[in-house]
Amino acid sequence: MTVGEMMARMSAREFLEWQLFASHSPIGSLRGDMQAARVAQTVAEVNRDSKRRKKPYQLIDFMPDPWQTLRPKRTAADIERDLRAAFGG
Known about the structure:
Layout: H1 3-9, H2 12-24, H3 29-46, H4 76-87
């Protein structure tokens, strides 16, 4: 679908809803990076020497550099607040 086709077929409200959904449940390359990082985190964690490294590994430890500046995960309450603010409800 082209941008023009999308603009003709999708309302601003629906577009905002998709943006909010994507911020809560990432899709595309970010999701793939997160999935790969979760596997790497799990492998590292089961092999972690708790005497040498007391702190558990975090998912962000295994994310590629561009994702190191990820925003904190948004809660359902955050998304609901944004929807209410955007649509006056």
